[in-house]
Amino acid sequence: MSKFYDIFSKIKSSSGFLFMMILLFVYFSVYAVKGERGLIKYVYLTEEVAEAKSVSKKYAQERHYWDEKVEFLSSNLDLDLLDEQVRTVLNMVGPNEFVILDENIKD
Fold first, then answer.
1. What is the distance between the alpha carbons of residues 78 and 106, in angstroms, rounded to a whole number?
2. At what angle are helices 15-34 and 2-13 packed, to 10 degrees?
3. Which positions ≥6 away from 11 have C-beta within 8 Å?
């Protein structure tokens, strides 16, 4: 057991061991900062999530606005008036309908 301890103490006191430990520390430190799951990537992903949440909030507000408009239209919708407006705007009639044009009526 003492031989093992003597060998370990020689390695420990040598400058090569210290150099290897410094290299390992630098390697893991750089990887912790710039690696695939490092601090820089974490900050980037945090900003992306914040931006996506703001865009999602904006679209949720827009959707709520349009849902209210559709609800208002569906509750006050007169189908005969809608049919008349569609025929006037599109200038179309059904295949078995007649159109009587009156020159005295002004829009």
1. 23
2. 70
3. 17
SS (H, E, C) the chain: CHHHHHHHHHHHHCHHHHHHHHHHHHHHHHHHHHCCCCHHHHHHHHHHHHHHHHHHHHHHHHHHHHHHHHHHHHHCCCHHHHHHHHHHHHCCCCCCCCCCCCCCCCC
Q: How much is the pTM? A: 0.49
- Residues 3-39: pLDDT tens digits? 777 776 776 667 777 788 888 999 999 999 998 889 9
